[in-house]
Amino acid sequence: MKAPQDIDRTRMVILPEQEHGERLARVLKYMAKAGLESMLLCDNANKFYITGRIFDGYIYIGPDGRVSYFVRRPSILEGKSVHHIHKPENILEIIDREGLGRPSKLGLELMQTSYATVMRLAAALGVDSFGNADSVMLSARAVKTAYEIQQIAVCGMRHDRVYSRIPHLYHEGMSDVELQIEIERVTRLEGGLGIIRTVGQSMEINMGSVLAGRNADEPSPYDFALGGAGTSPALPVGADGTVLRAGMSVMVDTNGVFNGYMTDMTRTFAVGNLPQRAIDLHKLSCDICHTIEDMARPGVRCSDLCRKALDMAAKAGAPNLFMGHNSQASFVGHGLGIALNELPVISLKTDSILEVGNVLAIEPKFVIPDVGAVGIENTCAVTDDGPMRRLTNAPEELITLVS
Q1: How far apart are CA 235 and CA 266, in angstroms?
Q2: What pTM did the predictor assign?
């Protein structure tokens, strides 16, 4: 993606023309599968996917496949398919005037949009029958283009640079919150946008989490691999103010969001010496991650990957510590891209089959009571000719934090 100073601020679509066409073709393919003749999109992640930018307004894909943009802000956007509006009730008049095709069964984002907004949009476009556009868009976004994978790879390189600084950010007596603040500062200086988009209205997180000692065993209400109590019931996840002391593990699980796409990476650090059990399980996490990276090829079922990970944890005598202890996650990995939690998901409950271009965060982790969490997480892309391509490449071994 171009640097901000090189972008034409008045153009609606700032993606390369071929890239824009490839994405629209995927969307139309899944619209047809879902039986939707038209869609109206207002979620920021979906608008970014189709245009490469965020704006206040709507994208309308009509019955003939033409795409129109209904913009409230910014007012500088121009183009033959750009129509400036004050409210959604203006849309139908423009559709009729421009011959864009009235919708019959309309796709709306039922997961990401409030009931009141859904009903208002349906009324504004004169439809009483609508389907779920979220499933269409998540399916389209699940397989990344080469351009998208390159954007994620850029995030991975920057993310790696941030993690290389972590040992130098530590000082004796600091808390997990203080360490996380320093990591976030370095991330922002590296170009991090400071925002993580998620799918679903009940998913909330800051720029990631730092889990130290017993806090790694604290369950969270959110559907993350591990929890942490957080510093307030207002955001009960992640660092809780634990002072970093000898014998603790410190798991750093942050997101690298530098250009609208993201990588997800976990590395584990040690304060002083950890018990041999923690060292062994950290190595097992690396082994599981590498095994999944090798197995995850086109045509493989995600449930088979999860089953393999569970089998490896069980053979090591640690099934009760795998993916949590007090509360265990039901997945070992997840898709990501524009949002943190995209498709597919590596779990026993999914029948998803891998395709070339799937990008997954693989995170086999263990929680050891009173010591903390150990393990790694890598963001990887499914290729057509071998093991996954790893997009996060920071050193995976346990690193001891020294003042």
Answers
A1: 20
A2: 0.95
